[in-house]
Design goal:
With 452 residues, the chain is an alpha+beta fold. It has two domains: 70-154 and 310-451, Orthogonal Bundle (MetI-like fold), CATH 1.10.3720; 179-300, no CATH class. The protein has helices at 16-56, 70-75, 79-110, 116-124, 131-141, 150-163, 219-222, 316-341, 345-353, 358-369, 371-386, 390-395, 401-404, 407-415, 422-451, and strands spanning 179-181, 187-189, 198-203, 231-237, 261-266, 269-275, 281-284, 293-296. The strands form two sheets. Strands 1-2-8-5-6 form a five-stranded antiparallel β-sheet, with no helix packed on it. Helix 1 runs antiparallel to helix 15 (422-451) and helix 3 (79-110) packs parallel to helix 8. The chain crosses the membrane at residues 29-51, 89-109, 121-142, 323-344, 365-383, 423-444. It is a multi-pass membrane protein. It is found in: Cell membrane. Residues 85-443 form the ABC transmembrane type-1 domain. One of its GO terms (cellular component) is plasma membrane.
């Protein structure tokens, strides 16, 4: 019997390259397992909304009828949307430019002070405040009432310190009591007055509690006789506390009106002017023997200066940009300061040894060397500015909301704030995305080049 020995086939040898491929494959699977939750969230929160918004922009307000590009056409016909585009352009040009400039100046100056860290912390603190809280803060600061708005309180204080203010904005003359009101708001006597006479100018409309503290009774002043070349008079409150008295006559309990400007007028020209004393008395001396009209100028009755309408149609956008600067100046300063700290000091010292002053060093050395950092800060702020919503929505009052609106707020107003047209709102969202993408791509490329 012949025995046939069958030799079993041996398995192929595993090479080192195969082992490396398997290890890499395992590594990719493990990495994918860790990244998968983040990818799912990214897809659910970013990719899907973008795709849905693009698709929704081609349907009508109800979402049931396909309208093609009608929403995009309507978007550029709507005056409110065009105003939002204009305001967004103002934001993009003004806010990042001012912030980058302020951040650069502050970063350079902070380097030269002793308490640099404390100063940086103080400027960076607004970043910890939410846009909602910052909007409420500045809505109160911009209030037009000087008793509430701190900015108008400061403006009114400075104005009154240099120009003064009327003490009798509500004062007026009774009809038929010898005074007539002019077209400019002034009051003048109906009868002519000559030197040697005393005239009484009675006014009403002033509460006794609103009289100046130094006001005195006018009765004694009304009884004084005028000299031959002077014209005397008294301006008084024609009201007796507690009742009684006679209209058009100075009674014992009636007060004079101090600090009231009085003019003597002849042939339409002011011949002399003076200011009433604490008892309301006044006198013009050295007048020739002619007839004069006594006038109380309109400045005595002008309403008090109320300050600046910060949140009016003309200033609402600059006012909101000011609030944005308050929040983000610290951010720009810290980033630029980090770039400034990395600058080669030998170049700065060499320039100083060559006789360059600080302005020349700043303009010709510091700024050019910081150009990459300044560009990144500027583009980052441009992206952030395009998405601004909270400050505009909170600070701008309802009547001027349309004057301050930007693309982000307009998108919300059209979709959910009363417009209920999510087709048009989606088109606005797509427009905003298209405007942001170039800045984002530019920033990503800058980061990649810096890493190389």
């Amino acid at each position: 019997m012949t025995a046939t020995l069958v030799k079993e086939a041996s398995p192929p040898a595993v090479t080192m390259a195969d082992r490396r491929r398997r290890a890499r494959r395992r590594g990719r699977i493990i990495a994918l397992a860790f990244v998968l939750p983040a990818l799912l969230l990214l897809g659910a929160l970013v990719v899907y909304p973008v795709i849905f918004s693009v698709g929704r922009s081609f349907f009508d307000a109800s979402g049931s009828r396909f309208v093609g590009g009608d929403n995009y056409t309507e978007m550029f016909r709507d005056p409110a949307t065009l105003k939002a585009v204009r305001n967004s352009a103002i934001w993009v040009v003004v806010a990042p430019t001012l912030l980058t400039g302020l951040g650069l100046v502050l970063a350079v100056l902070v380097e030269k002070i002793r308490w640099a860290t404390a100063f940086k912390l103080l400027l960076f603190m607004p970043m910890a405040v939410s846009f909602l809280a910052a909007g409420i803060i500045f809505r109160l600061a911009y209030d037009e009432d000087p008793d509430k708005g701190v900015l108008n309180a400061a403006v009114v204080g400075v104005h009154d310190a240099f120009k003064g203010t009327s003490s009798y904005p509500a004062a007026r003359a009774r009809d038929g009591q010898g005074l007539t009101k002019g077209a400019d708001g002034s009051y003048r006597t109906t009868a002519a007055a000559s030197p040697g006479h005393t005239v009484g100018l009675g006014l009403v409309g002033v509460l006794p509690t609103e009289l100046p503290k130094d006001a005195k009774p006018a009765y004694a002043a009304a009884g004084r006789k005028a000299a031959g070349d002077e014209l005397r008079g008294v301006v008084y409150l024609d009201f007796t506390p507690g009742g009684g008295g006679k209209q058009g006559k100075v009674d014992r309990g009636e007060s004079g009106l101090p600090e009231m400007e009085v003019e003597a007028v002849r042939d339409g020209k002011t011949v002399a002017s003076t200011t009433t004393a604490a008892d309301g008395s006044f006198r013009f001396s050295g007048l020739d023997s002619r007839s004069y009209t006594v006038r109380l100028p309109a400045s005595n009755f002008s309403p008090p200066y109320e300050g600046v309408s910060w949140l009016g149609p003309a200033l609402v956008t600059p006012a909101i940009i000011g609030a944005y600067l308050w929040i983000w100046t610290g951010f720009a300063m810290v980033l630029i300061g980090a770039g400034l700290a990395a600058l080669p000091r030998d170049a700065l010292e060499a320039a100083r040894m060559d006789g360059a002053n600080e302005w020349q060093i700043f303009r010709r050395i510091t700024v050019p060397l910081l150009a990459p950092v300044l560009t990144v800060v500027f583009v980052t702020l441009v992206i952030n500015v395009m998405k601004v919503f909270d400050l505009v929505y909170i600070i701008a009052p309802g009547p001027v909301q349309e004057d301050a609106t930007v693309l982000a707020t307009q998108m919300w107003l059209v979709s959910f704030g009363g417009g209920n047209n999510q087709g048009l709102g989606s088109a606005l969202g797509v427009l905003l995305l298209l405007l942001v993408i170039p800045a984002m791509v530019f920033n990503v490329r800058r980061f990649r080049r810096s890493q190389r």
